[in-house]
Amino acid sequence: MKNAGKKRRFPTGDLARVAVFAALIAVFGLAGSVSPFGNLVPITLQTLGVMLAGAILGTWRGALAVAVLLILVAAGLPLLAGGRGGLAFFAGPSAGWLIGWIPGAAVTGWLVERGGRNPGIIRLVVACLVGGVGVVYLFGIPVQTLITGVSLRTTALASTVFLPGDLIKAVLASVVARGAQRAYPLAVPAVYRERLHATWGR
Fold first, then answer.
1. Phi/psi of residue 80, each to 5°?
2. For residue 95, what are the domain limits?
3. 151 φ, ψ to 5°?
4. What does the pLDDT read at residue 10?
């Protein structure tokens, strides 16, 4: 009963971390983008930031960091790769890929959280591949098909050009996340959850 009347607040530290990772994803966009073979959806480094957000912040904070970025993009800020922004990108071929970043970060974080206080590099890689690649593709390919009118099979085949880079990004994100978690144990999502539950007596 001790905590029954306690009002929950969004911790200031969490707000800062969410803002930092939203900014980090935007910074990765400064590297620009590449559209191989005339693909309507460009290759960027920003999905690396999405994977890092999930792997380090966990489920809901990782998803929130991505959501903050996308809200700013929708408001017109040029935070996508190549200095692009605006609502038009949520009605074009990239729409599903962008929207997929949110559940992609959430699933990545959820899988890392299941790894407990010491998630290994293999779990991190699998989490980044399932969330940061698989989930994003599940949103990106069907929505691109719907918007462009191109068959699902053709769109899926064209999207395989993203796979080599995404595999590299998943490994890189896992190595960076593992290093951060070793240097700063509170960067482990499961540890954060334990502290949060302890704070609220859950």
1. -85, 165
2. 12-200
3. -60, 150
4. 61
Helices and strands in the chain: count of H runs, count of E runs = 9, 0
Whether 161 maps to a domain, the answer reads yes
For the chain, the domain total comes to: 1
Residue 75 domain-assigned (yes or no):
yes
Please state, for a pLDDT cut of 90, what percent of the chain lies above it. Answer: 68
End-to-end CA separation in angstroms for the chain:
11
Whether 2 is in a domain gets the answer no
Q: What predicted TM-score, i.e. pTM, was given to this entire model?
A: 0.88
Q: How far apart are CA 98 and CA 142, in angstroms?
A: 13
Q: What is the CATH number of the domain that holds 100?
A: 1.10.1760.20
| Whole-Å CA distances, 63 to 18, 123, 173, 197 | 9, 19, 16, 19
What string of H, E and C letters represents the secondary structure of 1-61?
CCCCCCCCCCCHHHHHHHHHHHHHHHHHHHHCCECHHHCCCCECCHHHHHHHHHHHHCHHH
Whole-number average pLDDT of the chain: 88
**Token representation of residue 78:** 């040029």
Section 106-120 average pLDDT? 92
Read off the pLDDT of residues 21-71 as tens digits, 9 standing for 90 and up: 999 999 999 888 787 766 778 889 999 999 999 999 999 999 999 999 999
Q: Is residue 101 part of a domain?
A: yes
